[in-house]
Fold this sequence. Notes:
Layout: H1 3-45, H2 48-52, H3 66-97, H4 102-116, H5 119-134, H6 139-162, H7 167-175, H8 180-191, H9 193-208, H10 212-215, H11 235-243, H12 248-281
Amino acid sequence: MDDSLYQRRKRTNQIGLTLSMLAMVLGMTVLLWILALLFYKGFAAFSWTFFTASTPAPGSEGGGLANAIVGSLMLVGMCTLVSTPIGVLAGVYLAEYGDQSPIAGLTRFVSDIMLSAPSIVIGLFVYAILVAQVKHFSGWAGMIALSLIAIPVVVRTTENILRLVPGSLREAAFALGAPRWKVATMVTLRAAKAGVITGVLLSLARISGETAPLLFTALNNQFFSTDMNKPLANLPVVIFQFALSPYDNWINLAWGGALLITLVVLLINIVTRIFFREKVSA
């Protein structure tokens, strides 16, 4: 190879590596600055009242986010109960039967569209087909909107992880006379259960901080309520409303709520990567 060409390629490589490192340092600096500010402001709002009292009235002191925390737990919990079986079964169908069915291509296409669709569009869709028809906001509408966001994540994750299962496992099960449905549920799905659980946890992390869909569906409730047929308080909407308010007490509570969601999402991601990394790679 010509020495001048080698030197030119070497300089180009060094320039590329330098620019990449600078971009990484800049991104990490901004991220750490945001996290440091969030932790500083958020921890200052944490107290026993923060977790036990409901959201305060405008201009009042004290209060907490107990109603929003419970509402978010209800929404995410109900969403998990709905999205997990639908997403896992659809992923199993695409991975095990997708090559023989024309419906699989349409299912993948719709799933990809839902994955890339802005969450506010999904919120408007649920508002149009449900909230506008019953003429009131509700926790059920919020749960449906979050489920439409979580299901595609579970579907694609389940399908991809099932395709990583060695074909020899399926062949061995077929050789023993097992039917296809039993091979799919008792052999391949069991072998990939760690990856499937990872997909479910990642979908939870995805929906935990969604605000736009809930603005059009569950909205908010200043009071403590567990009635899913009425507007339901939730952390993302409360943070959005309180952060834009002129009241210092509300702004402090918004910082605390933002930190709480960040810690929950961070915990989910850490648990996913630590406890399931080795099993998935195996």
